[in-house]
Amino acid sequence: MLTVEENERLTRVGPQTPMGKMLRRYWLPALSSAELVAGGAPRAVRLLGEDLVAFRGDDGVVGVLAAACPHRGASLVLAKNADCALQCLYHGWKIAPDGRILDMPAEPEDTRYLERIRQVAYPVREAGALVWVYLGPAELEPEFPAWDWTSLPDEHILVGKAVAECNWVQCLEGAIDSAHQTYLHDSASRIERDRNYARWAAEQGLDPTDGFDETGQIVRPWADGRPKLQIEDTDFGFSYAAIRKPLFKEDEFKNVRVTHFVAPVHAAIPSPAGWSQLIIHVPMDDYTTAFYHVRANLEAPYDEETARVHKNAAGLVPGVDLDENFYKLANKSNLWKQDREEMKRDRFSGIRGTVTEDQAVQESMGPIFDRSKEHLATSDMAVIRMRRLLMQSLREFEAGAAPIGLRNPIPYASIRGEERTIPLSQAWQSVGRITESS
């Protein structure tokens, strides 16, 4: 439980808020690469309470600028994208990706006024099928977080995106909460599939250490709703294990699901061998969050059928689950399209797609949940640790220290979640182990 004052400090992200200032010290995704077409329409970006505009010039270079034209504030989201620059519709000012004013066609031809003005432009990195932006002080720009998939061609990566209509902390808490897997994301049919898998593995005499099927979907050989949580702090945040009894041979084995919280907004969740997954919750403002689910095939391009299966399971199919701006079609106004008849049959939540399930419960808590009214339990250990780490980092940041994750080199390329069934005597730290090199 937090006090009302602590909750405000944790959740608010505007330019003048303590947390907003700290979050601006990190590289954050602004949008997916696929959203920008060379010479195409600019895209509105809402990030940390600020309105930005992103565009891709004819040469493929991406720019991210303040959305208001420096002349008289007209939105550059309406601008013409031509000649590798944005031209404001109002008076024709032309602005380069780096913020230089290239032309003021309504001014005298010999004007040098344009040399005295610069549009606010932010450092941009395009990597891993995402466009990343740094909003902080130029002299404090950190090293770019080179995850194991950020150097891969876009064809290896599937980026799922959705907008959650609630505060970012509610979303992040869900990403690092392993206990809800058994309930929110489970159903009678899923439990039965787990039982069938365990029975089959036992009959085959197999050691059930691989919990994924051929499409990369996880097949959990457990139905233990009371995980034991273990946590270890790290330079980037923490690693934690949800330890459960397997469906068979529980006197010999344990199921271990390891997730890594990578400050300030990332959760590296379990991935099968040869794959990598990262959940990112980026605050658009205090009341809206951009959710990104990055799945990367480290060994081969994503095939269309596997991509279709993954999008469908998550509830991230454009036109079916999402509108053109990544808002969910299942939302508060229609009770997230919950199907009570489906609940009677084989779906615990009655809601289609794991992402929609997550957003339904998170949005149902209100725009910003009042954490002074909650009653935390043992299953909330990771959530409690995440809050403490961020609040501690915030205090240290205000005292002049670098934020958590920016103080020492972080081996991003080797941070990968994992789920395995291992012998009881084996340490959980052997699962999802982080090394200095990938």
Automatic annotation (TrEMBL):
Domain Rieske: 27-133
UniProt-listed InterPro entries: Cholesterol_7-desaturase (IPR050584), LigXa_C (IPR045623), Rieske_2Fe-2S (IPR017941), Rieske_2Fe-2S_sf (IPR036922)
Keywords: 2Fe-2S, Iron, Iron-sulfur, Metal-binding, Oxidoreductase
GO terms of molecular function: 2 iron, 2 sulfur cluster binding; metal ion binding; monooxygenase activity; oxidoreductase activity, acting on paired donors, with incorporation or reduction of molecular oxygen
Pfam family, one: Rieske
Top-level taxon in the UniProt lineage: Bacteria
Keyword Oxidoreductase among UniProt keywords: yes
Keyword Iron-sulfur recorded: yes
Protein name (Swiss-Prot/TrEMBL): Rieske 2Fe-2S domain-containing protein
